[in-house]
Amino acid sequence: MFAVSTIICRRLSFGYVGSATDVFTDLDLIVDTRWRSALVGRNGRGKTTLAAFAALESDYRQLGGYEIDARVESELGDLGIHERLQARPFVDLSGGEQTRCLLAGLFALDSGFALIDEPTNHLDLGGRELLADYLSNKPGFLLVSHDRAFLDACADHVIALNPDTSETHRLSFSDWRSHYLQRLDEQALTNKALKKEFRRLETTAGERRRGSLKREADKGAHVDKGYIGARAARQMKRAIAAERRANETVQSRNTFPAESV
Asked: pTM of the predicted model, to two decimals?
């Protein structure tokens, strides 16, 4: 947790030693710390890595006096960790209770921005609902979670990490995912149409090539060989141009990443 108003990444590139591909390449991203942001993307896309970078690059505020104890106790109470549990050693708490204690520590600071990675892993349904309600009343955080219902209950922005870009939307997770899947469906229809057009152009190019070759073969059977040769050359040139246009069309239109979240 740290006290900043905006997190800015400019041309961030990073890769792990031994990995064939980088996690980030020239990533540009702006995060307002007042947003309740859900950080989404497929496994391995760099969600946890990005959160770690944000934490390592921050300046931690100095805490003072006994007031931190009162704030921690208040946050623990809001998360269902009351006096009896507070008196127990941390290692004796369940996984879900430990998670809630750690979150209470994050939000006990005067101000800042919480970085939260998969907080529902050890929580039952009641615990997830309690935590979602708790987070929905907080001013801002960056959250990584695969729990769609949990994201819907507490996030008001979605930051999506795509293979080469990032997108930020002020939407619930479900609304963002609905738009995302719609875009995938539209891209699938576009790709289908492109493939059909490609096959048509490929057929046309093949016919022109065959016509050109036939005219070349007919040169010897006609008096005006120069005319026949020029016409065959023009047919061949059009055939090659048609094939090139087909390839360029497919490559230029097929750009949206077909991956699921």
From this structure: 0.59
